[in-house]
Amino acid sequence: MYGNFKLKDEPLILGIESSCDETAAAVIRGEQLLSSVIISSAEEQAKYGGVVPEIASRAHTDAVDDAVLRAVKEAGVTIKDLDAVAVTYGAGLLGALLVGLSFAKSLAYSLNVPLIAVNHIRGHLAAAYLCGENLKPPYVTLLASGGHTAILHTKSYTEFKVLGGTCDDAAGEAFDKVARILGLPYPGGPNVQKLAEGGSADIPFPAALVKNSERMQFSYSGLKTAVMNYCHNRTQRGEQFNPADVAASFQVAALEPLVKKTVECAKKLGADTITAGGGVAANGYLRARLSKECEQAGLKLILPEKKYCTDNAAMIAAEGLIQYRAKNFAPLDINAAAQIPLK
Ligand code: KG4
Ligand code: ZN
User: Fold this and answer.
1) What is the pLDDT of residues 171-181, one digit of tens each?
2) Most exposed residue of 11, 68, 106, 333, measured as fewest CB within 10 angstroms of its CB?
3) What is the three-class DSSP state of 301?
4) Local confidence band at 303 (pLDDT 50, 70, 90 cut-offs)
5) Contact between residue 97 and residue 118 where contact means Cβ atoms under 8 Å apart
6) 17 C-alpha to ligand 2 centroid (Å)
7) Ligand 1 pocket test target in 41, 51, 122, 175 with most atoms within 8 Å of CB
8) From CA 177, how far away is CA 209, in angstroms rounded?
9) Model-level pTM?
């Protein structure tokens, strides 16, 4: 019979992530990260200019065994040693999620260990616990990925409040769209950053912030349209423009409001620590600006390494540990969810 688990203080947890185009597996023992393996189908997806769900699902099917076996081997343990299996059950591409989730269910059942269903976004938040800085709530987090942009107040390990977010596109989505406008290949964010490094941020694009709003709200659709109009109008008139300046100016308009508002929130709430997560938190400009502003405001900044900002399974295992300690285990008939509200 499945159940009746023996719980441990420092459990060995396998994390599995397959929500988009990265098949990832990682092993942690307590807070200590032992291994993290990522097998990406990004190169294949780049041929189509973005993630093709069917290609992602097939790539996960091909890679999931390999990712898990490598993660276990690199951790220096065996499958039988695992005390729990944590897996992303949403949000993401349904067919892609089902590959990791089905694998995790079978493994948890066969080992008779708890299955922990992880919300991908909570995984991004938990990446900050991997920094070895003994992070403890409360703190304020800037979360910016391909699907989400929000500032959150984490009150306890399992509880957070959304302080503000985007009213249209996510920051990462805007980076990907601007990359397409500038003819840069997928994945857009890192390529826009690279191009921006050689440009001047002197084009006055509108900041990605809704002014005079009662709620703190970001907005990326107006900024994206401004970039599109700038490039198209000049192209139509046969005028030259410097794509590096466009990238640099866009980056400032997209990221400055996130930096300023995150620091503002921490000050207002009296929180002394800021963390960041999600793919956009791998951006060099954002990281440098957050560091500077936090230093000036006397706030502690805990920034996960870039490889733990973009999709990975170490963050899923880290969130798995939090849920393990809260004894929040999933039934084996849990389904994947394409969308989970950020609450
Ligand atoms: O967290 P993530 O890997 O996947 C989601 O959960 O969405 O985030 C992916 C997003 C993409 O939109 C990608 O373009 C963006 O993060 N991104 C970046 C950078 N690296 C990834 N955006 C700006 N600068 C980067 N260096
Ligand atoms: Zn993600």
Assistant:
1) 999 999 999 99
2) 333
3) strand
4) very high
5) no
6) 9
7) 175
8) 18
9) 0.97
